[in-house]
Amino acid sequence: MRHDPVPDDLVAAQHAYTRAYEQLARPHTPGDAGPTVLRRRLLRLGVRVHFHPYWATAPAGASRPELLLLVRAQQRSREEAAA
């Protein structure tokens, strides 16, 4: 089934959410953003992703897990290109 492309700003917000989550999961080191800053960033980005206008007009079958899979695939291809 073919879906309309996911908007770039939604993909970017999901990328930022994933990065912030990964930063929060790592041990905190001096100079990094503190856990409170990262939690606030996660909340703000989570709201941006969850309430994005795309979801109101998305074709049937479009889902948030598909967005996450798309973001992870893009991250893997970037990592492979950098290696």
Give the uncertain stretches in residue-range form.
Answer: none
Mean pLDDT: 89
Return the domain count. 1
Q: How many DSSP H or I helices?
A: 4
Specify the structural class. mainly alpha
Beta-strand level of the residues, as a percent range? under 5%
**Overall radius of gyration:** 15 Å
Please describe the biggest sheet, giving its number of strands, its sense, and whether it closes into a barrel: none
What overall geometry do the principal axes of the alpha carbons give? flat
How do the SSEs run, as a string of H and E? HHHH
Q: End-to-end distance, in Å?
A: 33 Å
Q: Find the count of extended strands (DSSP E, 2+ residues).
A: 0
Helical content band: 55-70%
Provide structural commentary.
- The protein has 83 residues and is an all-alpha fold.
- The protein has one domain.
- The chain contains four helices and no strands.
- Helix 1 packs antiparallel against helix 2.
- The longest helix is centred in the last third of the chain and has 19 residues, at 64-82.
- The mean pLDDT is 89.
Task: List key phrases describing it.
83 residues, mainly alpha
Could you outline the blueprint of secondary structure elements for this entry?
Blueprint: H1 8-25, H2 35-50, H3 54-57, H4 64-82
Helix pairs in contact: 1-2
Short description:
By secondary structure, this protein is mostly helical. Helices cover 69% and strands 0% of the residues.
